[in-house]
Each structure stands twice: as structure tokens, then as C-alpha cells.
Amino acid sequence: MPNLKVSDVTLTFGGLHALSGVNMDVKAGLITSIIGPNGAGKTSLLNCISGFYHPTSGEIHYNGQRLTKSSPHQVSKIGIARAFQNLELFRGLSVLDNLMLARHQNLSYGLLHALAFFGKASRVEAENREHVEKIIDFMELEAYRKQTVGNLSYGVQKSVEVARALTLAPQMILLDEPMAGMNIEEKEDMVRFIFDIKNEWEITVILVEHDLGVVMDISDQIYVLDFGEVIGSGDAEQVASNPKVIEAYIGEE
Amino acid sequence: MSANRWFATGNYFTTYREEQRIFSTHLDRLVFCLFLTAFFVWPFFIDLSTKYMLVLDNILIAVIAVYGLNLVLGFGGLISVGHAAFVGVGAYTVASLAGVIGEQHMLITHGWPLMIIGAGLMGAIFGLIVGLPALRLRHLYLLMATLSFQMIFEWTIGFLNFFNQGQFIYVGRVHWLTGEVGRNEHYLFWYYVLLVTVVICGFGVRNLLRTRYGRSLVAVRDNDRAADAMGMHPGLAKVFAFGLAGFFAGIAGAMQAYLDRGAGFETFTLHESIQYLAMTIVGGMGQLTGCFFGPAAIEILDLQMEHLAEWAGHILPSALDLATGLRPLSFGLVIVLFLMFEPRGIANWWRILRTYLKLWPFRY
Q: In percent, how much of chain A has pLDDT > 90?
């Protein structure tokens, strides 16, 4: 079973310790959440996993494969997809093209085929289009298929962001605050999607989220970060009763 | 699929391959073919003077060059002010080879299609090398890097004896099935060759844009962080964009050399680079149709400015400086006006016209 092992990862920017000695063990097939106050280092940790940052020290392994020095496109090839917190979509393109872009590695035709758009190129494009259509169907984006992403509402753009990560056909998906700025209905939809991603698609989920109610309800495993350190971990009950976590969130009496 | 593929007004696709078509109805395709045929047929009926024939040929050469620049600037979002230097690389590939093996060598006169493709490949190689700074640089800094290539090119051509120190190097007349292409048919002959090249390259670019190569360019333009996370190497995509730009520029340059019957360095200066930029911006960045509108608009503007300058010279003989300054002034003005009022270029007017005509005479 695939799993992700973060061992003793430290990330410093000059004198600032974004992460210090973080250990994390993500089990396959589960929803693992990372929570913590603003600036705790949640996104930094995701950036380390997906290769945007390289840890100052420590190691990250996925199924025994070392990710510590990998670049983002290598990580995505291994099967770890990432949805961004601050919408990093291709704004000038349609939803369809955004998703087709995520199929980039699977489009295995050469330049000459592409120039003539004949035979292989046309066939491979059509096959991948079919895969993309499955994701569009799953994320309920049919109505927006041909619309330019920049013109869509925030909630829909968030869905497109998740859909794009799914289109990579990953084994593990990193969701960075997929529910931020959504209303209650959109949140309910998103939670349903996350459950389906885990159960139907059998994709391991790492979730960073501020809505503690949601996190406590859906997570199998929770890690709590504060000032770059893991201050608590375990299932929802263990974390909720951890005095350090209570202190970090509510403060001392 | 609907029974009627001539006047289908909606979306009747039943397979994804049907959706890939460039022309969704037979009528679209017929209109396009008729339009294209008109371009091939008109010289049989109208006798255009050599001067205007040359203008037409220059427009077509610029179209090929602008394909390249539009891929880099419009689709890839990477600014390049050294495009004329890439065109120059293509032209000098032909011209300097003609200088070495003789301007009447079989390879030059009979093997010109090979020479043109070779010049394109040479342009692509230079494009890939000059594109390397794009791995690290962006915006203004990339502009400086491409500008430096333009300068290096001009100085190399101007000082090396191999390139005749920038003076004219002659290229022989080409041969066609009927024998040597003479003085009278020269411009007409190249008009046809250029037209065919424009059509082939145009379809090539159109196809490229609907495949992973074209999409990765746009991805890098819109958001290279996300492009990286989607599994493409953003640096490679950028260098690739420059390689493509160099390829089209090289082809354009080789044809320029054949058309002018040689190459001299003043055809490939910074001024020409700015002119290509103006064509791309005026035509419409990131729009394939812009590649046709831009060169046509700028070349015609240039022609009119020449007339105006001539006229001004007659009326005010003392203001000759003013007349020569008119052309650069008009470029600058056109670029600024378009960036201010129509940043999407003439291609956008075309788009608006088309959507209007689709519904005409109904409003909605």
C-alpha cells in the first residue's frame, strides 16, 4: 500500500523556521488532515511534499521513493496531485482546456503528429478527452465546460482546481483549503466530493482546512501544526482532547 | 450527427473526434476554400505592378515571421525583441552558403525548398540557444536578453568578413519546373511559394495550438507554477517556444533572401524587430488570425506613410527630416494606441464582426 513518510523535515527561510522537525505518516486510503492557526506552516509542508520547496533538512519518502529534492513535475508524475489554496488556474483557458492540460503527461504523441493533427495525435486527444469528461461529470462541471475559467464564480473555480488535480489520475491528492470562502451548500458538495474521491476513486487525501467542524467529521487522521511544529496527532477525539491543541486554538485560561 | 452538415446551427457532435474539427459545417469549409482559391486565382485576372507585388510578398513573409513571434509573445507570454535577428539567421544561412559555394550552385538554385527548411532548422537552433535565458528570466530581463541577441547579431554580421561586413551577398535566381524563374515572373513566383508556405504553416500552428504543445505554452503564460504541478517542465516549454519562433523566423528569412536575391544587414535591424512586435500587437496577441491582420495592417500603413512623406517632401522641401521621421513615429503611435484602446488587436474586431454576422439581422 502506498504511503507518504515525512521524517524530521525542517524548512528555514533565513532566520525564520517555517517548519521544524516535522514528522508525519500518511496512510494510504485515508483522509489525513493538517490543521493549525494561520502561519503554522501547513501550506509550507504541502509545498515541501509537492516539490515547490525543498526541505532544509529531513527526508520525504513516498512508497520508498525519495521526494526530498524532486521538482513539482516529477512529483506529479509519481502520482501526487496538488490543488492550490489561492486558485492557480490557467485563467485565460476554458475549463475543458484546464483539465486537458492536466493530461499533459498522458498525451504521448510527437511534434510531427501534433503539427499534422493526424492519426495518433487526434486519437490520443480524443481518448484523453473522454477521461476528462469523466472528471467533469464527477465534479458536476458540465455547465461550465466551455467557459473561460477567469469568468467563473469563486466556488466553481475551487471545484475546477480540485477537478484539475483529479485529472492527473493521482494516487494521492493534496487539497489546500478547498472549502475556504465557500457557502454552506458549496461546502457540503465539496465534502461529498472528498468522500467520493476517497471511497470511489480510492485516492489518498491530504487535506488542509480551517473549518474544524468539517475536519473533525471527515478525517481519519489529524495532524496539528503550530509555529512549524507538530503539537498533536491522532484521530479527531484524541486531537480534540489534546491540551496543547486546545491551548494553540483557544489560548491559556 | 445531424443529417445536414451544411447548415447545422447547433452542436450535433456525437464523438469527441467530431468535436476536434476545425470547420464545424461544410459551409464553413467551402467558404474558407473559396477564400483561399481567390488568393491563388486573382493574379490571372489582375495585373499588379511590381511595386505592389513586392509589398504583397513582404506581407506574406511577415505573416510567417509573425507566426513565430505570436507563438512566443502571444501564446507563450515571453517578450522577444530580437525577432528580426532570427529572420536574419535564416536569410544569412542561405546567403552565406551562397557566398561559400557560389550563388549559382545547384543547391541554391534548384534545392531552394531544402534551403528554406534548412534555414528554418538553423533558426530553430538559434531560437533554442537564445531561449535558454528564459529558464531564469522574465519580463523586462528577458527583453534585455533578447535585445542583446539582436545586438550580437548586428555586430557579428557587420564586422565579420565571412558575412561581407553586412554588405549585400547575392543569391542566384531559382529554378522551377519550367526552368529559371526570370525577372518578370520573379515576384509572382515567390507570391505563390509564399502563399503555399503561409497556408501550410498556418495549419501547422493551428494544429499545434489544439495539442499538448500549444496548450503547454498557454499554461506557462497563464501560470507557470501550476503548469509545473500539472507535470510539465515550464522551462522546457519556454525554450521550446523560442525554438518554434526561431523556426518560423528562419523560414521567413530564407524566403526574404530569395525574394530580395540576397541579404544585407539593414533588413534585419532592431527597427525591423520593433516592426514585427508592432505587427503582433496590432494583429492581436494570442490570436491566430492576428498573424494575418497585423502584417497586412502595418505594411499598408508603412506604404501610406511613404506616400505621405513623399508628398510632404514636395510641399516642404526643407522638412525632409520630418518626412523620414514619419515612419518610426507612425509605428510607435499605432502600438501605443492599440495597447490603450484595443489590446486584443484587429483579431478582436474580426471576432466581433463574426459573432455579429452570425445572428444578423437578429439582435439576439
A: 0
